[in-house]
Design a protein that fits this description.
With 393 residues, the protein is mainly beta. It has one domain: Thrombin, subunit H (Beta Barrel), CATH 2.40.10.120. The chain is built from three helices and 20 strands. Strands 1, 10, 13, 14, 15, 17, 18 and 20 form an eight-stranded antiparallel beta sheet that branches. A seven-stranded antiparallel beta sheet has the order 7-6-3-4-5-9-8, with helices on one face. The protein has a three-stranded antiparallel beta sheet with strand order 11-12-19, with no helix packed on it. Strand 11 and strand 12 form a beta hairpin. The longest helix has 24 residues. The chain is elongated.
């Protein structure tokens, strides 16, 4: 299970504080660029926004906080954000899902359908050397039928409007702490979207190149549907529209809170940290673009890996280890018994099996003759009814 950092006592939770004094260590962050929007965070602590709870949503200021549970009219990719190991993740394409590393590997759910993890597919990004970032990918068994997510090629500059989508706890009762207003976190939990603006880009948080988004109370800094992350949003998506196209620009992974601030609340002056996707784009693509039939993984769980061993592979560039030409390796429940393909369906002797249906034993000669006679008799008896259109007498 993922660790619930946010809900543990501060003495036990690995809250990733930069230092024990009044703020992040200068060597670990470049907040000291003098941006007014983050001046209030100079005494902040860092809190990973993970939880073991299912479902969840970002905190929004709009109305009573329960809205934005369906895709916005200008949809950046709402359906592509799903449940990973009880937290959040974004479907990229080719069966791959991106999430925060601390979320951990586990079952994925998109559109109400659960997908198991391809064994061995969980991979933390390296970042090209040094300490690895809080970012990982994993591959699902099956196809959720979702579009490919476009990855940002450059970081959104400060001031850029963005959309956050996650599965963190919802907004609870209003609260005030140290003169700052906000809300607690509570159930119900459901996927939700909100908006914000990029405050800084290129910040180094937990060895991860990140963008930050301040949680503001009023314009011009605050925007409609202003949002902040809550417990459970880790792995969610930060989307940026550039040149008319929506890009995944960040992975939600950390809440920036005041030192001494109680857990499970969002107050104005807090901020969200999101992994900068553009920084790690090349490494992500180098992993997820490898065809299924040459990636060294058993993508369909049939015990056979890649071209030469898996009969579902036509060649090394085949994007699937399954084939529509193979009844027992086509990814379909052909006999509607709830089991799909070899080895899950016991009626499939192998991936090359001709049918998922059980074999019906042939009738022996005498029973066959008897049945044929009975059928023949029934047919003769009802022939007048079929022939003249009225019951026979």
């Amino acid at each position: 299970m993922p660790v619930d950092y946010a809900n543990k006592p501060s003495s036990l939770a690995p809250t990733a504080r930069a230092q024990q004094g009044n703020g992040p260590a200068p060597a670990r962050s470049n907040y000291a660029r003098g941006r007014r929007l983050l001046a209030c965070l100079l005494s902040a602590s860092w809190l990973l926004v993970s939880t073991a709870s299912l479902g969840q949503a970002v905190i929004i200021v709009t109305g009573d906080g329960t809205g934005n549970t369906t895709a916005p009219s200008d949809d950046p990719g709402f359906d592509n954000v799903g449940n990973v190991n009880g937290l959040s993740g974004v479907y990229l394409g080719n069966g791959w899902v991106l999430t925060a590393h601390h979320v951990g590997s586990g079952t994925m759910e998109f559109g109400g359908v659960s997908y198991p993890v391809v064994p061995g597919s969980w991979q933390r990004l390296t970042g090209g050397g040094g300490s690895p970032p809080d970012l990982a990918v994993l591959r699902m068994v099956g196809d959720p039928g979702l579009p490919v997510t476009a990855l940002a090629t450059s970081s959104p500059p400060p001031g850029s409007d963005v959309v956050m989508i996650g599965r963190g706890l919802s907004r609870g009762s209003a609260t005030t702490w140290s003169g700052n207003d906000g809300w607690g976190w509570t159930s119900p939990r459901t996927k939700r979207w909100g908006r914000n603006k990029i405050s800084t880009s290129g910040s180094i948080i937990l060895d991860t190149v990140s963008a930050t988004l301040n949680f503001d109370s009023s314009p011009p800094s605050a925007v409609s549907d202003e949002a902040h992350v809550a417990s459970g949003d880790s792995g969610g998506g930060l989307y940026w529209k550039s040149g008319g196209t929506w890009y995944l620009a960040g992975t939600l992974f950390v809440s920036l809170t005041f030192s001494g601030q109680p857990s499970n609340i969002s107050i104005f002056g807090n901020a969200t940290g999101a992994v900068d996707i553009a920084t790690y784009r090349s490494e992500i693509l180098s992993i997820i673009s490898v065809p299924a039939c040459s990636n060294g993984l058993d993508d369909d769980l049939d015990g056979q890996i890649d071209v030469g061993a898996d009969p579902g592979c036509d060649d090394a560039n085949d994007a699937s280890e399954q084939s529509p030409a193979l009844i027992c390796d086509d990814g379909l429940d052909n006999d509607l018994d709830g089991f799909i393909d070899f080895p899950a369906d016991s009626e499939c002797p192998s991936s090359l099996g001709p049918s998922e249906n059980p074999t019906v034993p042939a009738l022996s000669l005498w029973p066959a003759v008897f049945v044929a006679a009975m059928l023949g008799g029934l047919g003769l008896r009802h022939l007048p009814h079929a022939a003249i259109g009225r019951p026979s007498v």
